[in-house]
Amino acid sequence: MAPSKTHHFATIDDTSIHYFEIGDPNLPTVLLLHGFPSSSTQYRNFAPLLADKYHIIAPDLPGFGLTKTPSDYIFTFDNLAKTMSGLLQLLKITKYAIYIFDYGAPVGLRLALESPDSVKAIISQNGNAYEEGLGHPFWDPIEKLWNTNNSQEARDWLRDNYLTLAATEMQYSAGFPKEDLKLVDPSQWNLDFTQNQAGRENQERQIDLFYDYRTNLSLYPKVHAYFREKQPPVLAIWGKGDPIFVPPGAEAFKTDLKDAQVQFVDAGHFALETKGGEIAEAVLKFLGNVSF
Fold this sequence. Notes:
α4 (about 140-145) runs antiparallel to α5 and α6 (about 165-170) crosses α7 (about 185-195). The chain has an eight-stranded mixed sheet with strand order 1-2-4-3-5-6-7-8, sandwiched between helices. It has a domain at about 5-135 and about 215-285: Alpha/Beta hydrolase fold, catalytic domain (Rossmann fold), CATH 3.40.50. Helix content is about 40%, strand content about 15%. It has eleven helices and eight strands. The longest helix has 17 residues, at about 215-230. By secondary structure, it is α/β, with parallel strands linked by helices. It has helices at about 45-50, 75-90, 105-115, 140-145, 150-160, 165-170, 185-195, 200-210, 215-230, 250, 270-285; strands at about 5-10, 15-20, 30-35, 55-60, 95-100, 120-125, 235-240, 260-265. The mean pLDDT is about 100.
C-alpha cells in the first residue's frame, strides 16, 4: 500500500505553517521547497514517488498556500529561511536533503549556510544559485525595481503585468513541448493566482519579495564558497525551456562543485507537471548514493 499523505500546521513566532508529510519518519528526510507563485501543492504528485524510500516534508512558505503570517511579518528571504529553520527545529529534523525550486533555492541555500552539516544533499530543479541562470527579458522589470530603489512605478508595473492570471499561466506553459501542455493541470495556475497573488495584501508581499530577491545575488559569493569548501552532493535537474531560470544556471554548478550532476528534461519552469516521473527517477538514483 502506498504511504498516506498527511497535513499539519505548526506555529513558529506567530506564523502558522502548513506542511504536508508523507513517508516513514524513520527514513531519511527530504525537504521540498516550492517556488513562486505556487505552494506545496506543486509537489502533490511528485512527493508520493519518493515516499517509499524517504520521509518527505513539503511546507508552504510564508506568503503562500495555507501558511498564515502575522500582520507585522516582513517578507524577505532571510525571514522565510528563518521561519523554515524554526519548523525544522520544531520537528527535530537535524539532517536532510533539500529539493529546491525557484524561491525554494534562496531559502534552502540559506538553510545550508546556517547549518551546512545538516544538509546532506541538494537537488536543484530550476533553483538558481548563479547570475548566469537569470533569464532575460523576464528579469528586466524586476531588476528595474532594484535599480529604482523599489519605486512605486516599478511596483505598479509588476502588479499589473506579473501578478496576473495570464502571467501565471505563462509559467506553466512557456518552454514546454506543445504536445505536453495537455498534461498540465489548469487548476494549478488558477489556484496559484487566487491563493497567492489576488488582492492587494498578496500583491504587496509578492512585490516585496521581488525587491528582496536582489539580496540573493549578493549572497551568491557565500553560497559558492560553501560549495567549494563543503562539496555537498548536488543534482541540478532543469526544465531546459524555462525562460525564468535558464540552462546556464544549471551548468554553472560545475564551476564550484567537482562532482555536480547536471541533467535536463524537455519542459519549462514547472517541470514536475509534465516530467515528474523522469525527475523522480533521477532523484532516487542520486539520493541512493548519498550518506545520511
